[in-house]
Write a sequence for this structure.
């Protein structure tokens, strides 16, 4: 899977690249409008992560160019502006998703994963981790081909864990992914802890390995070693 | 009091004083003149009587005359050289008499001559002067009122036009505001100053707008960089537990900072009226949406939610602000509640009330809506801007928000501001 990261802030660009490469993607980068335009014309990418504010042009024009070329790449906008108008223009222009700075790398990774899965044509949309299999369309999971009943939140938790497997995830990143902005009205993270505990129990009861590891403080890691 | 009423009053009181003085002076002058004239007449009359008396006395008659106006009779007192003319009060008439009194010697016999003259004329004079003064005053009064009315209509017109323009102006459209040239120097000066001021306000507004936009971009990017670096650092396999703890704490603080930044930007944007909309939306629908989104948290805390949607609260509000308003109020009702507590939402066409059971003590209202007034300083998920944002939305959308605490409940009441003329 090849991803193009169009971001003028070098430090952020490198972080994104490093994280995505950890997760097994091949990444290329562009740090201005002209550079980006050149790259999209020369190469094919599966997914393009684009910042709106770029030197020499707007990220929105890159998207227009991609649409003009009838590119099949998934597009995710990253923007510093958390405004509804920008979000709407972004999505109307043909991008698949919109993420506001600052974001968690694990969140961006999950979004890329979802976009790629939606766009894959070979029909293989399942997410597999050892004996655990997820079917995102039906939101169904099986452990050793046996169905496990999960609540909606538990399903989202598990998907997030597997997509970001082996990475340390903060409670905050998990909460904002699964509960959106509403998690701000939590007094504490006990609530998340309860959900993770239930998920862990259901998976172990169904015969899977105990993959959810707590990391000191307020983090979790989904790993098989 | 209107400026015009004030000037009229001053003018009229000054006029009253002047007219009184003028009346007094007039009266005095006329009265002196009249006295002189009647004194001369008295003396002439006396002279005529003395002549008559001389012929009578020469004929050997002892002359005595007593009428209400003239008395002549012999006395023993020695004669005076001069006639004394005085005002004498009488019980019969309101006006004193002018009275001449002299003892004259006619062929060696002293005669007392007293001639009285009515001063009816003088009384008439007082009445006339008063009448004239009153007439002049009434005329002046009517004329002043009439002219002031005309003046206020004509002369003050540019002033009221400018005033109307100022009242109508809002920050969004201040650029279109222009105060026109008039034919009055003072108003031209005023309008020129107002034009300069609106231009300055407009420029400041634009700068402020640009600043908020830039601040968003400029601050969010370094924050993203720092956060992403910490996230990468966290993936390092060789970190000790202590290292991880430090990184996680730094991450939490960064998240807080970022939320704070977003909250302050939102406040600035609301203040700058950057959320304009012409579409109406229903707060009932937004509330239902958030009850759904927060359902899990509500269940987790075993809260009982009672809704009483008597009417539909429809208003012109940007969807983002509607979300912000409802989520902050409802979110707080969940957050500052205790397990097993209650939330009550009552909506009518003109009022919106959220109340909830709370363990927290009542906070003075003026403090509550201030920025950074958080109930719990150690709470990482509270930046103390939520209620400030709610208040700002209310203030900019003609809503009144009220907070009170009673019987273990806290209430937030939102009402439409009565339309002021």
């Amino acid at each position: 899977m090849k991803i193009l990261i169009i971001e003028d802030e070098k430090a952020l660009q490198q972080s994104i690249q490093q994280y995505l490469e950890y997760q097994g993607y091949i990444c290329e980068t562009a740090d201005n409008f002209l550079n980006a335009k050149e790259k999209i014309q020369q190469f094919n990418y599966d997914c393009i992560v684009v910042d709106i504010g770029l030197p020499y042009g707007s990220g929105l024009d890159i998207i227009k160019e991609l649409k003009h070329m009838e590119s099949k790449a998934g597009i995710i906008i990253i923007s510093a502006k958390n405004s509804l108008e920008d979000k709407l223009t972004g999505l109307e222009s043909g991008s698949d998703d919109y993420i506001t700075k600052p974001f968690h790398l694990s969140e961006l990774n999950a979004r890329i994963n979802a976009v790629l899965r939606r766009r894959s044509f070979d029909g293989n949309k399942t997410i597999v981790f050892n004996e655990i299999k997820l079917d995102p369309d039906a939101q169904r999971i099986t452990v050793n081909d046996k169905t496990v009943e999960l609540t909606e939140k538990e399903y989202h938790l598990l998907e997030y864990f597997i997509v970001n497997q082996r990475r340390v995830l903060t409670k905050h990143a998990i909460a904002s992914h699964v509960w959106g902005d509403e998690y701000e009205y939590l007094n504490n993270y006990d609530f998340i802890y309860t959900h993770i505990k239930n998920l862990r129990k259901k998976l172990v009861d169904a015969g899977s390995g105990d993959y959810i590891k707590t990391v000191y403080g307020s983090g979790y890691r989904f790993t098989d070693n | 009091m209107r400026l015009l009423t004030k000037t009229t009053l001053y003018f009229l009181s000054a006029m009253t004083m002047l007219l009184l003085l003028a009346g007094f002076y007039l009266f005095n002058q006329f009265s002196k003149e009249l006295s002189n004239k009647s004194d001369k007449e008295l003396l002439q009359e006396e002279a005529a009587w003395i002549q008559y008396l001389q012929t009578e006395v020469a004929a050997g008659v002892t002359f005595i005359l007593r009428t209400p106006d003239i008395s002549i009779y012999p006395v023993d007192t020695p004669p005076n050289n001069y006639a004394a003319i005085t005002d004498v009060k009488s019980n019969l008439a309101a006006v004193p008499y002018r009275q001449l009194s002299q003892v004259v010697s006619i062929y060696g016999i002293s005669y007392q001559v007293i001639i009285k003259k009515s001063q009816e004329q003088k009384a008439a004079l007082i009445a006339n002067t008063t009448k004239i003064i009153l007439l002049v005053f009434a005329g002046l009064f009517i004329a002043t009122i009439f002219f002031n009315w005309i003046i206020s209509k004509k002369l003050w017109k540019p002033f009221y036009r400018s005033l109307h323009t100022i009242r109508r102006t809002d920050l969004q459209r201040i650029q279109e505001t222009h105060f026109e040239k008039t034919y009055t120097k003072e108003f031209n000066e005023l309008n020129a100053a107002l034009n300069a001021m609106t231009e300055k306000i407009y420029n400041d507004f634009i700068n402020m707008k640009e600043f908020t936009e830039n601040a968003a971009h400029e601050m969010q990017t370094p924050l993203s960089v720092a956060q992403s670096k910490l996230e990468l650092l966290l993936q390092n396999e060789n970190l000790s537990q202590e290292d991880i703890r430090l990184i996680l704490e730094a991450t939490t603080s960064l998240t807080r900072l970022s939320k704070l930044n977003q909250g302050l930007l939102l406040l600035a944007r609301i203040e700058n009226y950057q959320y304009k909309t012409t579409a109406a939306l229903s707060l009932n629908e937004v509330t239902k949406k958030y009850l759904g989104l927060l359902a899990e948290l509500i269940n987790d805390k075993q809260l009982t939610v009672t809704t009483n949607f008597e009417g539909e609260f429809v208003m012109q509000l940007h969807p983002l602000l509607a979300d912000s308003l409802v989520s902050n109020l409802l979110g707080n009702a969940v957050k500052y509640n205790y397990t097993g507590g209650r939330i009550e939402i009552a909506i009518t066409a003109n009022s919106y009330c959220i109340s909830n059971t709370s363990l927290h003590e009542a906070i003075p209202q003026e403090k509550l809506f201030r920025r950074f007034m958080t109930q719990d300083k150690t709470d990482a998920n509270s930046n103390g801007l939520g209620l400030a944002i709610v208040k700002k939305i209310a203030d900019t959308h003609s809503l009144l928000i009220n907070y009170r605490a009673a019987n273990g409940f806290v209430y937030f009441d939102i009402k439409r501001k009565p339309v002021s003329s």
Notes: The CA atoms of residues 75 and 211 of chain A lie 32 Å apart. Chain A touches chain B through 43 residues (CB under 8 Å). The domain at 2-119 of chain A is CATH 3.40.50.2300 (Rossmann fold). Residues 190-205 of chain A form the longest helix (16 residues).
